[in-house]
Design brief:
It is built from three helices and two strands; from the N terminus they run H-E-E-H-H. By secondary structure, it is α+β, with helices and mostly antiparallel strands. It has a domain of about 70 residues: DNA Binding (I), subunit A (Orthogonal Bundle), CATH 1.10.30. A two-stranded antiparallel sheet has the order 1-2. The longest helix is centred in the first third of the chain and has 14 residues. It is elongated and about 85 Å long. The chain binds zinc ion. The site of zinc ion has 8 residues, from strand 2 and helix 2. Zinc ion binds next to strand 2 and helix 2.
């Protein structure tokens, strides 16, 4: 198929339609920071036809870059990049930690004698 350049407005419209139809990244399933990607990049002869478009998140699109890459290959690369164990998350509240408080009252596990 002959490459037909879309003007900016037509491209924006098509991109929005493709993203509305595919609300998650085709590779990792992320619903955020989605971009319309040319499966075959325009530089390699790919067209703006919807059949040449897929939705990828920014991370997966950055992995794919300007080349032809299968979804499986993107996933494999993504798995290589992701740390095996995610770093622990600490939540900083901005308040000093509360000092330890002794527990008061009777907390014996003995049944009360009737
Ligand atoms: Zn992704």
């Amino acid at each position: 198929m002959e490459r037909k350049e879309l003007n900016r407005a037509a491209w924006r419209h098509l991109r929005a339609r493709v993203k509305a139809a595919n609300p998650a990244c085709a590779a990792c399933g992320s619903p955020s920071r989605l971009e319309a990607d040319h499966i075959i990049p325009p530089k390699l002869g790919g067209t703006d036809h919807p059949s040449n478009l897929q939705v990828l998140c920014r991370t997966c699109n950055a992995i794919k870059g300007n080349r032809i890459m299968s979804i499986a290959a993107i996933r494999a690369k993504l798995a290589q990049q992701a740390p095996a164990v995610p770093p622990p998350r600490t939540v900083y509240t901005g308040r000093p930690a509360r000092p330890w408080q002794p527990i008061t009252g009777d907390y014996s596990t003995r049944r009360p004698t009737p």
